[in-house]
Amino acid sequence: MPRPQRLTRRFPARMTEAGYRRLRKFAEEAGLDEGEALSFLFENFDSVTHRDNLMHRLDLHLAMLAKRGDTGA
Q: Is residue 22 part of a domain?
């Protein structure tokens, strides 16, 4: 049985309410806490995303942020 992974980093992150609700739902379904769920998603990023869909959705998101004048910084 593999050893549990230790979470070693904490970082402040801004998330939309919708994004955080989806993260919590995913974490609950997977039996993880939110930090473990984020670690899983980023460690397996290429295999859990569809590159073309990701880039299209990113373009839409960036356009929405530009309309709001919010650069995320």
A: yes
